[in-house]
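Support reply, case 0932

Customer input (verbatim):
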Amino acid sequence: MFRATVIRNTTRNIRAYSTDSTNLLKTPLYDLHVELNATMVPFAGYSMPVLYKGQSHIESHRWTRTNVGLFDVSHMLQHKLSGAGSTEFLQTLCPTDFTKLAPYQSTLSVLLNKDGGVVDDTMITKHGDESYYIVTNAGCRANDIKFIKESLGEFKDGEHDIQHNTFEGSLLAIQGPKAQEVVSKFTNDNLGSLYFGNSRYIGLEGFGSSEKFHIARGGYTGEDGFEISIPDDKVALDFTKALLEQELVKPIGLAARDSLRLEAGMCLYGHELNEQITPIEASLNWLVSKSRRTPEAATFNGASKILSQLADPKSVGFKRVGIKSKGPSPREQNKIFDINEPTKQIGTVCSGSPSPSAGGNVGQAFINKPYNKTGTKILVEIRGKLREAEVAKMPLVQPSYYRG
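Our regenerated output:
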């Protein structure tokens, strides 16, 4: 039987992630979005651009896949964690082996609760043996801070002096195959030697600041690109305007960001991830470093459950998979049924969107075994009708990361 608890809990998280319009926060670039005639919507407690005047969702999506899309992701929460014991502490929260990362190497990871559920997904960059730069989701902001603070309280003793701080500022995602060409115009740094999953500090020329800013090669679209953290609001605004003066660059909102990440097979917290879902159920086995899969090395939260799921895949009754379809697009919470037994529910849709790159629609879903095998035909209930879809291998569009 399909786990209805997963559906209910996912629904609660979606409602928590998409907030109403009262008391919304604004990023440092809010006024610029308004000036650019963006349609602003509530998202994760912020007023965020979903589309810009003169661009359709499909045009925005395709522009990012062929040129450069500029995304304001300043709503994400930025952290610094440092001091003796930081690595050991992080390894109680995450299944990643941070001792294997080189300085200024980044990795996707997850914060885990005591049952192995995902508190949040996060990008973590190792700056030194006991120094980390962390980015977490805006919609999980209050819960993440509380979780980390309480976890530090449980972890600390006389041998550790860990400092955890969050900070605000602009965070820009510059995504697309021509991102390096564009960003290179504003720095003397050789970006050709900065590969996917790595970061450094660079200067930005022509903005009256000698400060260097953290730049990471990667992003949320499956394309080549960078994420640049700029705490100085004036530099951030001036740099954003200068980028938008480039013929190759257009501002892109949340609508295309969602379809781009779906094609790339990436999760959105509150849809594909929540505190009842383990990384294994979310098809993120690779986040559990191989060096941490023994009882001695598995010091992370929920280790016994996660290791048992890895050891016995048959114990995991459902998995996150990709889906493709034609016609009306699947949306979150649409029920999925066995094509040979249309009254038998076998899963639920987590996210769905039209796919400008692949054609038709793409989505992600939790589907029971054995119906989650690639190529399996399924039925999705959309607007009261059962419509045919197919389980598809992720990523649904081949990524274009820069690996040198």
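We compared this against your earlier run and they match. Two observations from our side: Residues 4-74+169-263 form a domain with the Gyrase A; domain 2 fold (CATH 3.30.1360.120). Confidence is low (pLDDT under 50) at residues 1-19. Please reopen the case if you see a mismatch on your end.
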